[in-house]
Amino acid sequence: MRGQDMRRSENIEDRTAGGGGGGFGIGGIPLGGGALLLIVVVSLLFGVNPLEILGLMSGSGPAVQQSAPPGYGPQTGTPDPRKDFVAAIVGDTEDFWGKTFSAMGKRYTPPRMVLYRNSTASACGQARAAVGPFYCPGDREVYLDTNFFDELARRFGAPGQFAQAYVIAHEIGHHVQNLTGTMEQFDARAAQSDGRTRNALSVRLELQADCYAGVWAASARQRALIDTSDVDSGLRAAAAVGDDQITKGRVPPDAFTHGTAEQRTRWFRAGLDSGDVRSCNTFAQTGP
User: Taking the complete model, does pTM exceed 0.85, yes or no?
Assistant: First the structure.
């Protein structure tokens, strides 16, 4: 990756203070019975109380008030390479989605990226490292425990910078869904659905975010910021976080909430190959 050629975002809030952990999920989504089973399995994998994950994902956890720490901003001394990398990816997504929204006659308002370790407050409740990176619609912020990248390589077998960039771009994709009204429509449909249907809708929401990550990657490839090896790294990461790979057959497919490895790589590839957000309407497909 040529991350050095990407503009650094200033929408980075650094709350890191030590410790670590990791996972891969999303907050603020209604949950069905099958999703509850999946959460229990994931909590066992990461050694966290499932009630903590439920409190975050349902948005019912306490939104602890705290003074905002200094943002990433100008710093003295040697910058943290990991934080600098996150700022580069977020900055490039800001530029890409800003131009994309402008072409559609809309204005893109970028989210803030919150970097933390172990635990921090969010509008969706208390963010826990074991939940992994997630987007909170309540405050329009992305939350990332910086040690998750180690977990991505070690536990999920997806090393490399572009695997990390894929995770960030996926969460930014949820912000795009929030701005375009897709997330609001999802919430309305999910509230009127049974558990199995809610899970299926959640899969489509996640796969669209994967596709949006692929659309951004297509732009990065066109600008020679990434190459074939980077694309392969992104595809491996998408496959590694498939529900079937994480649960290893311990939950039935109708309990999946993020999509299988095949589905996630296919939709990431759809966005990458087309470079067009119009190719990402997962909700219009007969099957995801």
Answer: no
Domain spans in the chain, listed from the N-terminal domain onward: 3-279
Contacts of 33 (CB under 8 A, 6+ apart): 195, 255
Could you tell me where the DSSP H helices lie in 112-227?
Answer: 148-154, 161-180, 182-191, 195-222
Q: What is the pLDDT of residues 39-78, one digit of tens each?
A: 444 444 444 444 444 444 444 343 333 334 444 444 444 5
Produce one character per residue of 236-263: b if its CB has 16 or more CB atoms within 10 Å, e if not: bbbbbbbbbebbeeebeeebbbbbbbeb
Q: Tens digits of per-residue pLDDT, 144-159?
A: 998 888 888 888 888 8
Q: Which runs of E-coded beta strand occur in 89-164?
A: 112-116, 119-122, 125-128, 134-136, 141-145
Q: Which has the closest alpha carbon to 86: 174, 181, 168? A: 168
C-beta of residue 256 within 8 angstroms of C-beta of residue 203: yes
Which residues, in sequence order, are CB contacts of 14 under 8 Å at separation 6+?
Answer: 69, 70, 71, 72, 83, 115
